[in-house]
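Notes, Module 5: Reading structure tokens.

Key idea: the token line is not a picture. It is a compressed description, and you learn to read it the same way you learned to read a sequence, by spotting repeated patterns. We will look at two proteins. The first is printed below with its tokens.
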Amino acid sequence: MSDLRRRKLADLLVNYSTEVKPDDWVGILGDFKSLPILREVYQAVVDAGGHPSLLIEDSQMQRYFLRNASDEQMNWVDPALQRYTEGGDVYIRVGAPDNTRAMSSIDAQRIRQQRSAQSVILQTRLERAARGEFRWVGALYPTDASAQEANMSLEEYQDFVYGACFCDADDPAAEWRKLSAMQQQKVDYLAGKNQVTLRGPHIDLSLSIAGRSFINSDGRRNMPSGEIFTGPVEDSVNGWVRFSYPAIVGGRAVSGIELRFLDGKVTDASAEMHEDLLIAQLDTDAGARYLGEFAIGTNFGINQFTGMILYDEKIGGTVHMAVGMGYPETGSLNKSAVHWDMICDMRQDSQILVDGELFYKDGAFVI
């Protein structure tokens, strides 16, 4: 039986997030578990006059590839995917993991090798998006595996996911426009500012935003969203941070991460679990030890850690940072095959100063 909230989510992705128009070439990407919502998205794209291309992924096939592919196969870039990335108009990705630990036994170096080989796809997508040539959005469809990761029943997790996307409201798009207006006020305030200082029990960090732009992430690229983000000046980050939640890559949770920065570069890194994967990621390339993103989460409908970064990085009262690739539209110059988000809780005894003025305290804006 179709869930009305699922239909609302598909409508949001097509008609609000990416605003599909007649003759748009629309890539619809997802896992086989996401087929119920991919069908809804497909129908909405057709109804909007777009040309849909369906691309399906599967963790079992991906796991086999990572274990058995030769170096030549690992370094191969799919020309069909490359052609679409270079010429498509819209990218809609709906993940639906059937096993959140599917890649746990895969060697970190193999994951690193594949990410490096495929970085041309990510770079092209980001550059075209920054130029306004490529509209994209990513979402997740609730599965038993994701619910288990979040310590919820499937029914509870469905309520959480659809609530985080405002799909339990009569007019979800109207709710996103309200959040967008609030965030735009903060973005306007930050325009032209120079220095950001973060202090708290888990952080003592400074970074420059001089000449950089904050982006109002209001559900048009991630669904759900609820964040403002920028790319820090690459050599400006100094201090340390201890991240509050595990950072997951390749199905492995790296917990207890602590990073120390000097003139922008991670000079010291440690983790309580899977430190080898942390170091492997940081050593991927020259840009992987620099921050490509700094962001403040604003979605208070997301109030707990779920193990899914799409939700967790938006938790109201947190900040997150990504080592590696920066978003060109922010002014970031950092390039890397890596873009790895890590979250720090700011809801207790914490503050953010902007050019010496209190901007944010204990998880809430004061400006």
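Here is the second protein, with the sequence above and the tokens below, as before.
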Amino acid sequence: MNIRPDPTFHASPKLAMEAPPESFAYTVLLSPDSSKPDALAVIDVKPGSSSYGQIVHTVTMPNKGDEFHHFGWNACSSSLSPLTGHAFLERRYLIIPGMRSSRIYIVDTKPDPTKAAIHKIIEPEEIFRKTGYSRPHTVHCGPEGIYVSTLGGGGKNGCIMTSGGTCRAITW
């Protein structure tokens, strides 16, 4: 555990604007027809770097048909709130939801962001069993933890992608 808050967390928007710029950016690479797995690209955004503006690493997922959507970090500046007891979390894991598959990927960006790798995959069956929801859409970090909005539920229209890539309706 760190003994100081993550230096990428900022107590105000003004302090964030005054902070050094990021050296790497993360974006998703989508397979529009699901013929290939989606991927995460690490892009060098450090001006003056020999690989500036280029993809320096790719994390290709093991499954097809995920349809990645709005992903986010496991922790952010809201973790600095003294009321939460989480001030020493670090921004390390990207939480990437697969909207079509109802699968969530956890990608570790440490210790080297150019060697990001899959840390864990949360399969759709676990999400349904524990939450009753499907189709994870957007990930946000907050003072109390990670928030994931979803587009599907456990009713007649709920759907999960099975390991075979087919949609199975969920009824309760």
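Summary for the second protein:
- The chain has one domain: 13-169.
- Confidence is low (pLDDT under 50) at residues 168-172.
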